[in-house]
Amino acid sequence: MTSFDGSANGIATPRFALQQNEDSMTITAWCTPSADSSNHSADKEPRAIAEGRTFGLVHRAYYLPLVLPLPCKGVRHYSVSGDAVTVTIDKASAGLWNLEEVVPGIAPELHVGSTQRQANDGPDVISDAVSRANESASSDHRLALVDEESTTSADCVPVEQLPSDSLVRAPRVLAEARSQVHEQPWDEDRDANRRSEEAEKREDECWNEDWYLDNYADEAGEVAACLAWQPSHLVMESHPLALSRDDQPQLDPLHLLLIELLFAQCYDERSNQGDTSVESGWTISVLCRSLVASYLPRETDSSEQCVTAALRVSFRRALTKPLYRSWSLATVVAHDVRTILGAGSSSIRTRLQLIRDCLEEGAAGGDDAMEIYVKDVVGPLAMWHESQPQESYERLAALVHKASEELTRSDVGGPLWDLDTLERAADEVLAEEEQ
Fold it and tell me: Can you tell me the distance from the alpha carbon of 434 to that of 204, in angstroms, rounded to the nearest whole number?
């Protein structure tokens, strides 16, 4: 057994110990609540991920990232006993590891010829993400990677210094995967812009004028019931935080991904009036373009423009994919997203867990893509979320509110859908029928 206590460094790294056998390694971390950790519920389940040479554990106010000496298969199981969290991971190949080489931090780039690189190495997710982040970062903001030759076990990386996409990656759903939701198989030669453009074309192909008009007339009152439903567990704020021009948050692409996922979950919740169904995994998946098209959103414009673009994508999916295709419903769902963001970390954490549960149920039903969505996106995003300050979500909530107020039907559907003309024509017909 080897152990390490990171508390001496003044960062939220728990004391932990390691044990192993030929097939697995067990990590035990002691996550003792501190006096100032009131925002972290002791009753929340821990979150752990293991892939390639990357391990990460989030629980309460603690984050434990580990660099493994050799690849692993993934997390086998975990348990909680008091303040101790025990996670067992399976090794990719049998054999004993040098536990002194298991160090807290972010995995480095492995160079060819390294004695630890083997032909069957799993994907080094963190290393790849750090490289991508550093390509576009200034020298003052580049992430310091762990140096395998010089790092001691006392060198740890606090949560706030992790790159924003340190664990999250575009879902690697291959063409042979069984899935009723995935639209674009993973191909590293196709960049995010091409994937987004292809998704836009598919949404235009899915546009159904008659379906939209039926939901607009809503003769059975089904859409009206969704609109009237009130989520009692949310505090409905009437005055969102206002942002001055100089007070815009520094957005990360994962903030935009979070908007998509929350919109999808809120739509599913509202359309089911607070319940989930066997179709919830399907609904959440098809409403999140980033999942089904295998790409991550990119920040290319101002914060305000990026949030508007993310919300526009969600509206397009909501008007072409699910059962209820209604502008009014999409607008109310956007308000729900703003409320969740404004409520802060605990509310977001709950929603990410609900999303994960729905996708895992879909994966258990045989959809390979949903399993990969959890592994590549939702699970790591939940870990990233723990590092974000409450202020960032309050500001993001304000931007979502502003975008939902200013987004127009023409912005979403353009001349092909021509939503304004459709609704005016429908209003005239309905008015004549009432006379």
Answer: 33
